[in-house]
Amino acid sequence: MEHFPRRLLTIVTEALLERELLAEFEALGVRGYTITDARGKGGRGTRQSDWAQEGNVRIEIVCEPALAERVAARLRERYYDHYAMILYLQDVSVLRPDKF
Amino acid sequence: MPQLDPVIWFFVLGFAAGVARADLRLPAAIYEFVSTVLLLSIGLKGGVELARDTGGLPAVELGGILLLGFLLPLPAFAVARRIGRLSRADAASLAAHYGSVSVGTFAVVVGYLAARGISFEGRAPVWVVLLEVPAILAGIVLARGLHGDVAWGRLLRELFLGRSIVLLLGGLAIGWLAGPEGTTSIQPLFFDLFKGILALFLLEMGLIAAAQLPTLRRHGLFITIFGVLTPLAFAVVGALLARALGLSVGGAIVLATLAASASYIAAPAAIRTAVPEANPALSLTASLAVTFPFNIIVGIPLYERLATALAG
Fold first, then answer.
1. CB neighbour list of residue B73: distance below 8 Å, 6 or more residues apart
2. Is the whole-model pTM more than 0.95?
3. Residue A29 pLDDT
4. Which residue from A4, A42, B269, B299 could staple onto A97, CB 3.0 to 4.6 Å apart?
5. Which ranges of A1-100 does DSSP label H, i.e. alpha helix?
6. Are B26 and A50 a contacting pair at CB < 8 A?
7. What is the mean pLDDT of each run of 10 residues along chain B (312 residues)?
8. Looking at the partner chain, which of A16, A17, A82 has a beta carbon nearest the beta carbon of B277?
9. Would the CB atoms of B277 and A81 count as touching at under 8 Å?
10. A87 secondary structure, DSSP code
């Protein structure tokens, strides 16, 4: 079976930002994403997912490497200073390249 | 031992369980459900009262309360800036939280008055709606200035379509349209179970408040003192305004409690997006871990005495 290379961008951040980030993705041309509730511990302390005010989300985007870089750059520029946010990039393979 | 309403003990239980790190946690969906039922109950009850008495909504009263919402943040900001020596953003955030209101505290005072057979104006949920937003706007202006870089359109939309406002006003409208007879079919859930639902809500609030304690220890003295003295001072302002507006004693207790309460849902969300450089833990901890428990345990009985004294 043929595999096609893509990048997986994973973002873990404050649930409060969800709506704003989706608007950013739309503007940058992201075609799809997956969001899950998340909890954990990091530079800004323990973060619970059971209360909306302090909840975290994990957003995953599979796309072309160039787009993943653009999204990562935009998020770093606008949100890193004041919000709890981490992101990381991985290489992945997909079977249907037209989808991503 | 003072005569505490049993629902308050549920808060104490949640708080103690949280401090002891007991294996106790309400699923997020349950908290959402419980707070939805509470908001709708309060709205419905107010709507039924509105349908019963035809006093309507006096413009002077609504205007006065709206003004109160805009003005309360100013002294809070000055105190936080001068005495607390907080940054402009943090002081403005604290001012927005304390000028705005807590619907949870409102639910507790409603239960408190019902248990004592003290009546109050049915339109009180409208006061909550009027007090929720202005202080948040004032806080953002205090942080940013009038011409600051704020996406006002989106912000206002999110504020006015926030859960508490939609559910309170929606419940109010349904109660008013259906009237006392029309609402009998939904009475078991929304009216009879009110105290039980409130108890569950307070259990969760206790857990949430306990989770703030590590932050409280870090930010310490100023926000603890601020979190106790601000509600006391604001309650006096609220009670005096109620007196000037000619409200009932029950109404004065409600308005004093609302002025004393601090937001922990609408304000944190709005300030987080509009003033991101403010430390969110500072205001939220003061509001949740200090002021909310203070108001429901000590404050409300004090505000009752205050309102009674002013009326006498």
1. B92, B95, B96, B98, B99, B135, B138, B139, B142
2. no
3. 94
4. A4
5. 18-28, 65-79
6. yes
7. 79 94 85 91 90 79 94 97 94 96 94 93 91 94 83 84 89 92 92 92 91 82 94 97 95 97 90 88 91 96 96 82
8. A82
9. yes
10. E
Q: Map residue A21 onto helix, strand or coil.
A: helix
Domains belonging to chain A, first-starting first, are: 4-99 (3.30.70.120)
Nearest CB partner across the interface for B27, out of A16, A48, A50: A50
Task: Decide if pLDDT at A50 tops 50.
Answer: no
Is pLDDT above 80 for A47? Answer: no
Residue B97 makes CB contacts below 8 A (sequence gap 6+) with: B139, B262, B263, B264, B267, B268, B271, B283, B284, B286, B287
Domains with residue ranges and CATH for chain B: 6-14+27-311 (1.20.1530.20)
Does this complex have an ipTM over 0.85? no
Using CA atoms, how far apart are residues B47 and B122, in angstroms rounded to an integer?
7
Portion 234-273 of B in contact with A at CB < 8 A: 264-265, 268-269, 272-273
Inter-chain CB proximity A16 and B27 less than 8 Å: no
Q: List, in sequence order, every residue forming a beta bridge with A60; answer none if it has no partner.
A: A10, A34
B273: chain A residues, CB-CB within 8 Å: 16-17, 20
Confidence check: pLDDT of A49 > 50: no
Question: Chain B residues with CB inside 8 Å of A85's CB?
Answer: none
- Cross-chain residue pair A48–B276, CB shorter than 8 Å: no
The single residue listed with the structure tokens 């936080």 is: B80
Beta partners for residue A11, in sequence order? A59, A87
Say which of B25, B32, B272 has its CB closest to residue A16. Answer: B272
At B1 the pLDDT is 42
Alpha-carbon span A95 to A98, nearest angstrom: 9
